[in-house]
Amino acid sequence: MRRLTRTVAAAALAATLALVSGCSSDSDKTEDAKSTSGALEKVTYLTSFGNFGRDSYAWVAKEKGFFKEAGFDVDIKPGEGTGNVIQTITGGKADFGPIDLTGGILQMGNGEATDFVAVAAIQQRTMAAIVTVEGNNIATPKDLEGKRLADTKFSVVYNLFPTYARLAGIDESKVTWVNGESQALMGMLASGSVDGIGQFVVGQPTVQAVTKKTPVVLPYSNVMQDLYGNALITSAKIAKEKPEMVKKFTAALLKGLEYALAHPQEAGEILKKNEPTANPAAAAAELELMAAYVRSSNSGTAIGTLDSGRVAKSIALLKGAGSLKNDLTPDQIINFDLAPKA
């Protein structure tokens, strides 16, 4: 009887251990699943200005898995120009986004924005421009006098125009600006409600596709040659608290940029897949034009590099033109420790 009791007890103990072991195993699997599913860090990214070909590299980085490989689940949202992107990021509603670096210098140097830093260059030269079409009697900067131009109030083209006007010999008081949303600007130009719009030089293919007319471009770089184009920014808080996360995200985004420039047609189709209103052919053409701005003789072979000396020259140019109220150093607006090295 005692032997039978011991046998039953042993069996019961074995069954209990097996049950516990099974539960523990299932629990471990559940926790492993939770750990795996929660491994990707959620990030909100803003494009620079709507959803055009020039910003398609972010969608490429997501579609090709570059963000996921780096550990990120990225939500891409359309930005509305430099001021909007800065406000959204410093307000904690987004983590990263590209701004025109000159626009960022103006915002910080004039006390309009703080608490953000640039961590990589997207374009080595400014792409800001006034774009019109043939038939509007605009061929030179001086021809802008007496004309109506449209842009968003956050756009670097609009905010940098006073400096451009002074350096290009334009009487700014004779130019009328009207407000327009980023996605509506080309339609305004096509309808003839305005004579020109603030735009990047790479927007020419899209302008032609929308207006059915030949674009005429007045690049700001013709009179301001040291200025960078777009730069990736994040908040000063994120840069300080999560430097490795910033480096990983930047590398993944720049990988998307490099791939998009090497495969513009595919990038255009990826943009179309995520933004149904996009024109893939125009997007591809924008990327082909943008390639020369992403790499230049100033940047060497590495994408994304930022040079302190060049930034200092840009600040001096804006200061000399009377566009900056306060002194500013390159280190105040750029975190060189996080930026790609040449």
Detail the topology: elements first, then pairings.
Elements: H1 2-37, E1 41-46, H2 56-63, H3 66-69, E2 72-77, H4 82-90, E3 96-100, H5 101-109, E4 116-121, E5 128-133, E6 148-151, H6 156-168, E7 176-179, H7 185-191, E8 196-200, H8 204-211, E9 215-219, E10 230-235, H9 236-241, H10 243-262, H11 264-274, H12 280-294, H13 308-320, H14 330-333
Parallel strand pairs: 1-2, 6-7, 6-8
Antiparallel strand pairs: 3-10, 4-10, 5-8, 5-9
Helix pairs in contact: 2-10, 2-11, 5-6, 7-8, 8-12, 10-11, 11-12
Walk me through the structure.
With 342 residues, the protein is α/β, with parallel strands linked by helices. It has 14 helices and ten strands. The strands form three sheets. The chain has a five-stranded mixed beta sheet with strand order 7-6-8-5-9. The protein has a three-stranded antiparallel beta sheet with strand order 3-10-4, with helices on both faces. A two-stranded parallel ribbon has the order 1-2. Strand 6, helix 6 and strand 7 form a beta-alpha-beta unit. The longest helix has 36 residues, at 2-37. It is globular, with a radius of gyration of 26 Å.
